[in-house]
Write a structure and sequence with these properties.
Layout lengths: L1 H15 L9 H6 L1 H13 L1 H4 L3 H21 L3
Helix pairs in contact: 3-5
Protein name: EexN family lipoprotein
InterPro entries: Eex_IncN-like (IPR047937)
Organism: Rhizobium pisi
Length: about 80
């Protein structure tokens, strides 16, 4: 009985810790360009279904901020 209860609790807790529901912030995406590229690619491949999701909007904002930083650096600012 104790092992069954332990198994049920373990399965319940493991279901709550899924990474699929995490929304990345703009700063997190700017720090991890591989993740940013992956999310932007997914969003652009399915714009009708994903464009308005928080991850896609944050990825577009992070991409824009990185582009501005690169332009500023290349112009000597």
């Amino acid at each position: 009985m104790r092992n069954v209860l332990l198994g049920v609790v373990t399965r319940t807790l493991s279901g709550c810790s899924g990474q699929g529901d995490k929304t990345y912030t703009v700063d997190e995406l700017m720090a991890d360009e591989a993740l940013l590229t992956k999310i932007i690619s997914e969003c652009r491949n399915n714009p009708g279904g994903l464009r308005q999701t928080p991850d896609c909007q944050n990825a577009e904002a992070a991409d824009w901020k990185l582009r501005l930083e690169r332009m500023k650096t290349s112009l000597g600012g």
